Amino acid sequence: MSDACTREGQLTLSSYSTLPTSPRSPNHDSPRSQYCGYGWVSAVLLVPLLVQDLAAMNGVEAANLTERCDTTKEDYECVMHIFGNHYLDPGAISLYVSSFSAVISFVVSLSVAAIADHGAYRKRLLAAFAILGCMTSVSFFIIQSPSLFWMALVLSPLGWACYNASSVFTNAFLPIYVRVHPKVLEAQDRVEAHLTLQEMDEKNKDFFRANHRMSSNFYPCGTALTNPTGTNYAVLVKEQRKIEEQVSNDLSAWCAGAGIVGTVIVQGVCIGISVGMKESLLSLQIAIAFTGVWWLAWTMAVLPWLNARPGPPLPEGQNWIAYSWSKNFKTIKAMRQLSQITRFILAWFLLSDGINTVTALLYVITYQELKFTHTESLMMTIALSSVSFFGTYLFLMIRRFWKLSTKFMAMLTLGLYTALTAYFVIMPYFSTVYGLRQDWEVWVSVVYLGLIISTFFGVAKVMMAELCPEGEENEWFSLFQLADKGSSWIGPFATGAIQAVTGEFRPGFWFPFALFVVGGAILFTVDMNKGKDEAVRYTADQEAKRRLLASIPPITITTAGESPFLARSVLLDL
């Protein structure tokens, strides 16, 4: 290689550390810690138990429809009159209420989610929904008699809507904090530096061509600049994505752990309330109110230190709800350009409903058929949360040790879910003793679910964070939440209908089993690398369109005005 080329390469490489870096400032430990701290607001909602108790108190004996239900009996079996000759089991009513709550949550989340991508609305809406959620939880004290059962049907959807809307905003912080993590920014700077050097290579080649000095001896000059250490652009991008995936999984796991600890604390307090008040209806109301106060208190404690990373200002004169729906409609239209994230959201639409249905059925069967008490139901949740804490870090260590991808972890945990559901489905056909008919089966199932549930939801959020376009996190996570809550009414509704037809809850496990099989097949086809490339191209295309529109001057249309010499101007906003 010629001396000229070598000197040029050394001069350029010496400036490596001074090349322009990302305009986004690095995120430090404090904001990430506060994001994890928000996980502490995870509060178990005891509303399904309250709904079942109120339905039973308003019901009649299943064996004698003319006799009022006596809930003081140990093994009471009651149904509630709906209309005409139609009666429903309290457990089925609880499933239908959950289904209706999911629909309301879906509408609310879709109506406000896109707003959070503008300004600092993400933090403000977190606070607003925490306040509304706390007020809803405390309002359950209004229900002082079984005749006010309808109040529970109103408050339950409101509480779930507030909680799920908050989940949209908190989930949207994950990709933002990952992208400004120091390790991720360092990897991104290496990629940008390589591109800058590549551009300088092209300028050097143009210079030599212009001065007629280009010869075979100067061809290696380009590789001296853009490939100084034997690396290339593709290798650097691959390294950057591995670092992003590592940071995403670590942050998700630590936040899940914080949320689990908070859940265990809340459940412990609720058990104390339940035992101290002999599992009365009032004890459930106090426990629900406590979860709401806990939610609000931790939200307000975390928000001052939560870095909002504000987005562009909201367009003036826009109606919040109309703007949010129009933005979500545009996001759905954009799915044609993002084939892999579309597949993932479709898979999540099915899988999330299956997972929620398995958990709901497990609690209904234990409460209605195995006659678990309020305290035992709360202990189930504590056991589930405690085991999931260890399960989160167990699978995190497994992933690190074998260097497994996020998608592989999702498929692994989904396979474990499917295996347990297959046991619930198949065993009742071969035995009248087993198949979720023994208390020990319940506790084994709780431990089994605890090991995988937090990991599955965590890797799903990480996959979504990796696939969604930059700058539109709230819109895409609202679509992610849309897929979750938009389908979560289907499972409870379907299993409630199966129970109404068969008289049993266990056949309902066929529904989530089918969802796991179909959803797993779709998830298997998702290509993460292709999806990330699509997201980068989409972001670049959107930015190019915005710049193009900003560069076009407004068009002035002149029409006949009041003066023959002066026309009226109408500006068309392009």
Automatic annotation (TrEMBL):
Entry's localization field: Endomembrane system; Vacuole membrane
Gene Ontology cellular component terms for the protein in this record: endomembrane system; vacuolar membrane
CDD domains found in the cross-reference section: MFS_Atg22_like (cd17483)
Signal peptide: none
Keyword Membrane: yes
Topology in the lipid bilayer: Multi-pass membrane protein
Record Pfam families: ATG22 (PF11700)
One GO BP: amino acid transmembrane export from vacuole
Keywords assigned by UniProt, alphabetized: Amino-acid transport, Autophagy, Membrane, Transmembrane, Transmembrane helix, Transport, Vacuole
Record field: transmembrane: 35-51, 93-113, 125-143, 149-174, 251-275, 281-306, 345-365, 377-396, 408-430, 442-460, 509-526
Family assignment from sequence similarity: Belongs to the ATG22 family.
Functional description taken from the UniProt entry: Vacuolar effluxer which mediate the efflux of amino acids resulting from autophagic degradation. The release of autophagic amino acids allows the maintenance of protein synthesis and viability during nitrogen starvation.
Protein's recorded name: Autophagy-related protein
UniProt organism field: Mortierella hygrophila
Source taxonomy: Eukaryota, Fungi, Fungi incertae sedis, Mucoromycota, Mortierellomycotina
